[in-house]
Amino acid sequence: MTEATTIRVSKKTAETLENIREKLKAESLDETIQLLVKQQRKTILESAYGVARGKIKPYTEEDRGEDRN
Fold first, then answer.
1. I want to staple 9 with a disulfide (CB 3.0 to 4.6 A). Which of 13, 25, 35, 55 is the partner?
2. Residues 6+ apart with CB under 8 A from 31
């Protein structure tokens, strides 16, 4: 970590972060927050693809549905 800043949170939030840090086996609260942000980004991206994610095949020329002869 090159630069640091202070973020004011309630004691309850600090305790919650500490509990999450222990469960994630993170080395610091900073790492814990980074992991939570990464997890949230992944969740948002996965939801953006919808239910067909992984089921849609790439577009091919045969999909055009027209006769080019």
1. 13
2. 21
The gap between the terminal CA atoms of the chain, to the nearest Å, is 62
Q: Which residue has the tokens 């693809």?
A: 49
Contacts of 14 (CB under 8 A, 6+ apart): 29
Helix axes 29-48, 11-24, angle to 10 degrees: 80
Non-local CB neighbours of 28 within 8 Å, separated by 6+ positions: 21
Residue pointed to by tokens 């609260």: 29
pTM for the predicted model, two decimal places: 0.65
Q: Could you read off the pLDDT of 24-46 as tens digits, one per residue?
A: 999 999 999 999 999 999 888 77
Q: Which domain holds residue 43?
A: 16-48
